[in-house]
Specification:
The complex is a heterodimer. Chain A is mostly helical. Chain A has helices at 2-20, 23-37, 55-64, 71-83, 92-95, 119-129, 141-151, 165-179, 189-195, 229-239, 250-262, and strands at 108-110, 115-117, 200-201, 204-205, 218-220, 225-227, 272-274. Chain A has eleven helices and seven strands. Classes of the chains: A mainly alpha, B mainly alpha.
Chain lengths: 275, 108
């Protein structure tokens, strides 16, 4: 009898976990929400953020993209990536062999390290394993190298894989972060980028989260420089008076993992320009 | 004497109310305080957001002042999923500041 109750409880727990941890159906629901809310946006255009929604801003942006302000960052990133010689005589190209310099391979879940590896993390891992100091994560050289690699990854398809218990756990952590209210102003990411997407907060139009990872790194006029996705996360945390986290913190990596998986099937188009 | 006194208090009260309304307006619009315009259209203010209903005819729509104070202080009590910040509950604004905002909203 006892055993039976136990096994029923066990099966129930197992089932509820299985239902909860289903990235594939999360993704379908997430996409369908936006397809329904924005029937006029061609699916592939979600990678352009607010410029997929607002035609006036799109025109201004297209004009800017003719002489993009991130060009200098790409040139500097190219030099940094190809000409940096580490103290042990090796270089970035020793780490980024084969497809490893393509954005489509990030983020991925590294089972051995039990953590999500993003492109920026891989850049610093490369440096550290060859005796160099890590770079700052949100802006500067790392964003430039990332911009150079992003340029060469344009058009690649986002196809993040989430499988295996540990990977699903990281994904669930990212999802939880995305849906949790935080900060003195009490906002979750989902409040602004799902529920209120397409609407205005003051003069800012809120972009849908679908496609949010595709265009990074970005040159922002507000920053006056190029910055990484995690820099943007920090900004959105600060806006609601929540404490921004460190670049490549577990939470931000998991958040990037979750958001990237939500955007599977879309194309990378970074680097880009934003207000 | 009594009339003079009454008159004085009236003028005094009027002046104070005016000051409170003016302060309330500043608090409502200031981006670092209420920043209500971020979401609500108010009195045709510039660059207002549209994630929330416009605020108008407040006195007739909210005859009970307490309800208006409560909506600003803790909107979560009315709607657990609202995106409106809990201005009182999270200490974004003081009680006095919220009351000043309500005085201003009553002029809309």
């Amino acid at each position: 009898m006892c055993l039976r109750i136990f096994s029923v409880i066990f099966i129930c727990c197992f089932l509820s976990c299985a239902v909860w941890a289903d990235p594939a159906s999360d993704q379908t629901a997430f996409k369908n929400y936006f397809y329904k809310k924005f029937p006029e946006i061609p699916v592939g255009d979600f990678i352009n953020g607010v410029y997929a929604i607002d035609q006036t801003r799109r025109q201004q942006w297209l004009e800017i993209e003719e002489f993009p302000p991130y060009d200098i960052a790409i040139d500097e990133g190219e030099i940094l990536f190809n000409e940096t010689v580490f103290s042990d005589g090796s270089s970035y190209s020793d780490c980024f062999v084969d497809g490893k310099r393509s954005k489509k391979n990030y983020p991925y879940f590294d089972v051995n390290r039990n953590t999500v590896v993003t492109l920026e993390l891989a850049i610093n891992d490369c440096r550290v394993s060859h005796g160099e100091q890590p770079l700052k994560y949100k802006t500067g050289d790392i964003a430039k190298i990332s911009a150079y690699l992003a340029l060469h990854s344009r058009g690649e398809i986002i196809e993040v894989e989430v499988s295996g218990e540990a990977a699903i756990n990281a994904y669930e952590q990212g999802k939880k972060y995305y849906y949790s209210k935080r900060g003195q102003l009490n906002f979750a990411c989902v409040d602004c980028h799902v529920a209120s997407s397409g609407m205005r907060i003051r003069a800012e139009i809120l972009s849908p989260s679908l496609g949010h990872v595709s265009n990074f790194p970005v040159y922002r006029f507000k920053w006056g420089s190029i910055g990484t996705l995690h820099r943007r996360f920090s900004g959105c945390n600060s806006q609601v008076r929540a404490k921004p986290l460190a670049g490549q913190s577990e939470q931000y990596k998991n958040l990037e993992y979750f958001l990237s998986y939500m955007s599977n099937g879309l194309k990378f188009n970074g680097p880009s320009t934003r207000r | 004497m009594l009339i003079v006194l009454l008159l004085c208090t009236n003028v005094w009260a009027g002046g104070v109310l005016e000051q409170r309304v003016a302060a309330g307006k500043r608090l409502t619009l200031d981006r670092k305080m209420g920043n209500c315009l971020a979401c609500h259209a108010i009195d045709n203010g510039p660059f207002s957001g549209n994630t929330a209903p416009p605020l108008f005819s407040m006195k007739s729509r909210f005859p009970d002042k307490k309800k208006l104070v409560a909506q600003i202080s803790n909107p979560l009590a009315n709607n657990r999923d609202t995106i409106m910040p809990p201005f009182g509950l999270h200490g974004i604004l003081t009680e006095d500041q919220i009351h000043k905002i309500v005085e201003y909203l009553y002029t809309l």
